[in-house]
C-alpha cells in the first residue's frame, strides 16, 4: 500500500513505514540525523501522517492499521 505513496513522497513514506513497524519517535529522530526527538522531527512526523491521510483517505488507513497489527 505504501508503494503508491512512496512515489509521491519517499521521505514521508519512510516515516510512515517506520511508524507502522512500531519504531518509536526517538529512533525516527536518529534515523533522520537528529540526536533526540525535537520539534523539527515532531513536525516532520506530523506532516508525514497528514500527507499520508490526505493521499489515502481515512478508510484505507484503517485497513492498513489492521494489516499491521
Briefly characterize the structure.
The chain has helices spanning 2-8, 10-20, 25-31, 39-56, 58-68. It is mainly alpha-helical.
The tally of strands reads: 0
Average residue-wise pLDDT: 87
How would you classify the helix and strand content by structural class?
mainly alpha
Q: Summarize the helix and strand pattern as letters.
A: HHHHH
Q: For the record, give the distance between the C-alpha atoms at the N and C termini, rounded to a whole number.
A: 15 Å
> How many domains make up the coordinates?
1
Helix content: over 70%
Low-pLDDT runs: none
Tally of contiguous helical segments? 5
Radius of gyration: 12 Å
Strand content: under 5%
Shape: globular
Largest sheet data: none
Protein topology:
Layout lengths: L1 H7 L1 H11 L4 H7 L7 H18 L1 H11 L1
Helix pairs in contact: 1-2, 2-4, 4-5
